[in-house]
Specification:
By secondary structure, this protein is mostly helical. It has 14 helices and four strands. A four-stranded mixed β-sheet has the order 2-1-3-4, sandwiched between helices.
Length: 418
């Protein structure tokens, strides 16, 4: 019994030692490869910071607008002053005709046109509805949003003021006039995105996608490099002493997990704090989400690595998948409107579940129980891709052993013949 226990302990010790050697070797190769080092260390650091700077301060303010005032009255001028006082609009030009305003728009000197008709003042005086036309730039949706919100709020306030004046003339008190003119007061509270900013909406999802895509790309480049470096063009080195499926998969995975665990502290901790993004997720919640996400992404990359014959091939996969994965995530287009086929397709990628889970936790303040579906799906993908990664490396190890043994037999035959 003691011999069996001793033998088992030695095997376990040898397995742990070999796994540690594989981990150390993989980490040294990663850090010695300039391209992979840039991908693993520089890109996750620079991209989130650069994206956040590009979209800062998140919302479009002081949108340059041209006004065509055909009324040229005190009422129209007062309306223009109120438009210019909003944080959304900047009345950059007051044109005499639509042709002049359209010419400036074509030159990108203004991003919208407001047309005040000749009958504006007379319509207000006679109690008729005055129509102010907006021509919004739909080239970028945030331009349209700023234009409509700025002009819409001023129009509502102007309408309330006119109604209050009429009620005061009818003999009502100021308080009664205010209540009658605006009986319902809507208090809007943005829950998931208080700033109403584009970066607070898009950057958290982009962070999750960057983690997966750079991981898969780095693993693919390392696989392609290994095939170019090894004599027999194999994915793993021809070293029979350290061969072992679990040792190989766990050793390689540990190297990537260590690097990205450190990167996550920066990407999910420092970036939201610096740029004021929603940051409601606690440390335990992030751990519950990120551990299965990193593992599933790593095993996903290892499973795909068998298809990469050189360093350039993974880049094609990276370019092909990045935008489709963003659109399939459920962030840009709601999942309820996706066909069942596309919902199945998106479910095979770890990033799809991680993006939704992270936004629920960080923006909506959801706990582990509320994001249980996403976390469970990530663990399922972790188990599935771990099995596929083991099958891939088991096949490669068997192939290498056959090649090494065949090469040994050929050398022995040559020595015998000599």
């Amino acid at each position: 019994m003691k011999k069996i226990i001793s033998k088992t302990f030695k095997r376990f010790k040898s397995a742990v030692s070999n796994t540690a050697l594989i981990f150390q070797r993989e980490l040294l190769i990663l850090l010695s490869d300039l391209g992979v080092t840039i991908l693993l260390l520089i890109v996750p650091v620079v991209y989130p910071f650069l994206y956040s700077l590009i979209y800062y301060p998140e919302v479009v303010r002081d949108l340059p607008v041209a006004v065509v005032d055909l009324s040229r009255t005190a009422d129209s001028r007062a309306f223009i002053r109120k438009l210019n006082a909003t944080p959304d609009l900047d009345i950059r030009y007051e044109c005499i005709s639509m042709e002049e305003a359209a010419g400036k728009f074509r030159k990108r000197e203004n991003r919208g046109i407001i047309l005040i008709p000749e009958t504006y003042s007379s319509d207000l005086a006679l109690g008729r509805q005055a129509v102010v036309s907006l021509y919004a730039d739909m080239e970028f949706f945030l331009y349209y949003k700023a234009m409509v919100m700025g002009a819409g709020l001023v129009s509502i306030e102007e309408g309330n003021d006119i109604q209050v004046k009429r009620l005061l003339n009818a003999g009502l008190s100021e308080r009664q006039a205010e209540v009658f003119s605006n009986p319902f007061v809507i208090s809007g509270n943005a829950i998931a995105n208080p700033a109403g900013g584009f970066a607070s909406y898009g950057i958290p999802a982009a962070l999750m996608l960057i983690i997966q895509q750079t991981l898969v790309l780095a693993i693919g480049i390392m696989a392609g490099t290994a095939r170019e470096r090894h004599k027999l063009g194999t994915l793993i080195p021809c070293d029979l002493r350290r061969m072992g499926t679990f040792r190989m998969v766990l050793g390689k995975s540990a190297a990537y997990f260590l690097i990205y665990a450190l990167m996550c502290f920066y990407m999910l901790g420092a970036i939201p704090a610096w740029f004021g993004y929603p940051d409601q997720a606690g440390f335990s919640q992030l751990i519950a989400l990120m551990v299965p996400y990193l593992l599933s992404a790593i095993f996903f990359g290892l499973s795909l690595s068998v298809f990469f014959k050189n360093r350039e091939t993974p880049m094609l996969l990276y370019l092909f998948l990045s935008f489709p994965l963003l659109f399939l995530s459920g962030i840009i287009w709601p999942l309820s409107n996706m066909s069942p086929v596309w919902q199945v397709v998106r479910s095979i990628f770890p990033s799809s579940h991680a993006m939704l889970g992270y936004i629920k936790m960080n923006s909506l303040g959801a706990g582990i129980s509320e994001t249980g579906h996403e976390i469970a799906m990530l663990w399922i993908l972790t188990a599935f891709y771990f099995v596929t990664a083991c099958l891939v490396y088991k096949t490669q190890i068997t192939k290498v052993k056959k090649l090494v043994l065949n090469a040994g037999h050929q050398d022995n035959s040559l020595v015998t013949a000599l």
